[in-house]
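Moderator note: this is an archived Q&A kept for reference. The question asked for a predicted structure of one protein chain; the sequence and the answer are reproduced below.
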Amino acid sequence: MLVLSRKVGEKLVIDGNITVEVVRIQGNRITLGLVAPANVKILRGELNQKQPVNEKAESGVEHGLLVAC
């Protein structure tokens, strides 16, 4: 796992086509903005865990997960 520190307004670029921006930090909660191609599925971690194992493999998301809390 890669752990990075970011400030409001700072961005991460993943694989050249997915951008994650820290929009707001308020107390112990952050708000993230995500920009990705339409074919990239982005789910909150608790929703992704409810998928059956075979659907995870079919979606192409086996080891990477973007989580916004």
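Archived answer notes: DSSP finds two helices and three strands in the chain.
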